[in-house]
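Dear support,

I submitted the protein below through the web form. The confirmation email said the job was done, but the results page showed an empty box. After a refresh the structure appeared. I'm attaching both so you can tell me whether what I see now is the final result or a partial one.
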Amino acid sequence: MEDTKKKKLLLLGGLRYLLPVIEAAHGENVEVITCDYLPDNIAHKYSDKFLNVSVLDKEAVLAAARDNSIDGIMSFAVDPGVITAAYVAENMGLPFQGSYEAVRILQNKDLFREFLTRNGFKVPVAKGYDNVEQALADRHLFNWPVIVKPVDSAGSKGVRRVDGPGMLEDAIREALDESHNGRFIIEDFLEKDGNSSDTECFSVNGELVFCSFSDQRFDTAAVNPYTPSAYSWPSTMPQWAQAELRSEIQRLIRLLGLKTGIYNVETRLCKNGKPYIMELSPRGGGNRLAEMLRYASGNDLIRNAVRGALGMQIATLSDPVYDGHLAEVILHADESGVFESLEISEPEKSYVVETDLWVKPGDRVEGFKGANNAIGTLVVRFPDIDTLEVAMSSIKDWCKVCVR
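What the results page shows now:
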């Protein structure tokens, strides 16, 4: 009888990044239903029920949600499902951090750039297209180099820098291969000053109560050099830029009427002296970012995200105070092949807090083209900022993914 009173949470997707969400929900005595079209995805083994429905099919997910009388819905770390989650929540009157229209703006890169421009935010020259010929005809609008990317994909899939008009068409076609809705965006390439930031924020009733910044790092030798390969906290971005960005994130939340929940936010300070909000998505990020912030600051964003999705009381959150210097390394292979081993040298090995390896010797691995090609993570805590910076600038010298 007691189980019938449990709240039901529908999680869209089945990736391993949902495992801590499932654990947090179970800790709140919540029944978890996972949903996608891939029955073998790892999260389905830990949920209480699996629904074989594509997260892109809004009507099918809505029908399944109604059939299962859910109390809340999330698309944590699953970017393609966020619009569907907002649609289901709005149609069922469930808690969600934004309206369907607000979420649609946030999740569509060209709509987001248009919204930022209309409301006086700093934004690069950008334009969205669904027509290759029109984009090629607009070459004169942009300040080269540019970035070409799908308007609706995550994990840096289909993203390419283009230094001149001659390579633009190839980049557009690559972006379209990764797009769900057949649209892509071209925008001026903003050269960053220092490291960009990709990390989590949290609002309660429209007030930004937790705002973090990270140092996001890249493997320039990777198949896709725009796929993040490491993160560290606290950020080395100047405090004035962090303060301005926090204020602008709060302004964006208010303008869109956002409420309670977690956000994955990408920002950067550029060499033109201006800080920019690049992305703000109403979901937890991939790459275990919310877990890293629990290590780094003690704030449990995942449990609070679960509670927010169910309309439950949120625990007290405040801007992070960091416990030392924490880094996360996204383990990946330089090239496709068969995984042999992971080798970590001293002294960095002594700083490793956690090794989360997702493959075993003999498994096939792919080159690092997108976040889905990661094979695990390292959590590393360094004694000081200098030691962290030396280690982060030489990851391949002490952390080797051996492939044959």
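Response: this is the final, complete result; the empty box was a page-load delay. The CA atoms of residues 126 and 391 lie 36 Å apart.
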